[in-house]
Amino acid sequence: MRIFLLIFGLVGAVNASELCSNSTKKEIYKFDFEDMFQGLRGVEAYDDESISIVPDPANQDAKALRFTVKSGNLVNNGNRSELKVSEYLKGDYIFHYSVSFLLPSDYVSEGEWQLFTQWLVQPNWAEGQTWKTFPGSPPPVGMFFEDDSIFLTHRPEKKTPIYSEKVKIERDVWHTANFAMRWSLDEDGWISGSVNGIPLKRKSDGSEIFTGPNMYNPEGNYFKFGIYRGRDADSTSSIYFKDVSIHVECMEPKKS
Question: Which residue from 34, 114, 166, 197 puts its CA 20 to 30 A from 129's CA?
């Protein structure tokens, strides 16, 4: 198979009026090993070996989701293997994202950048934009890997990214990254993240909160996880994921 690319469109919509009626926090996505396509808006992979369910490398009695990229495996103009989740809801919510990931000892860190999770802008449908006419942009928020470390980037209004400090991680063991985000076009937006409970602090001042705009249009951002790296990378590398979930927390109604 030359390219394995599926686009499911917007699926798994949550009724906003029901979301906050019974609880303040609701799970809206969880990766399911029994149905890996449930809740997805698309798959970006070069072939059917790019994304697969395999035994957990740290526990052979459990399962893991393996993403693999090879030299020249270009999908949508990038060397990538990713799952796309449609989870954005318009309204005053706090989104909570959690992923567990494992880098094997033979993972090759190369190129200028490697991205394991990202939150990407989508076309402004209300203004008539489509995926064909949409100019695209770097992710407003991303979790990057470099020098055996994880760091977070935030791009307010497409400007030069703001970086977090790096958190060192070990190979061949599972790590958990958690993020909380209030999506906004304005200054009331904010982001926080941690790896194994260690805060991803803003490099410039040590703050644990990245404040400011984190959306580029009212349609919001969608979530992707897997591997995305520079086009010139020539190694074969894999990363493993499990326990991927998204929760939405309802905020208190604004007082008039």
Answer: 114
d(CA 218, CA 124): 7
For the chain, report the end-to-end CA distance as a whole number of angstroms. Answer: 57
What's the pTM? 0.90
Check residue 170 and report its DSSP letter: -
The confidence score (pLDDT) of residue 3 equals 46
- Average pLDDT score over the chain: 88
For the chain, helix (H) and strand (E) counts, in that order, are 1, 19
> What is the share, in percent, of the chain residues with pLDDT greater than 90?
66
Q: How far apart are CA 140 and CA 80, in angstroms?
A: 18
> How far is residue 1 CA from its own chain's centroid?
26
- pLDDT attached to residue 245: 96
Give the C-alpha separation, 139 to 123, whole Å. 13
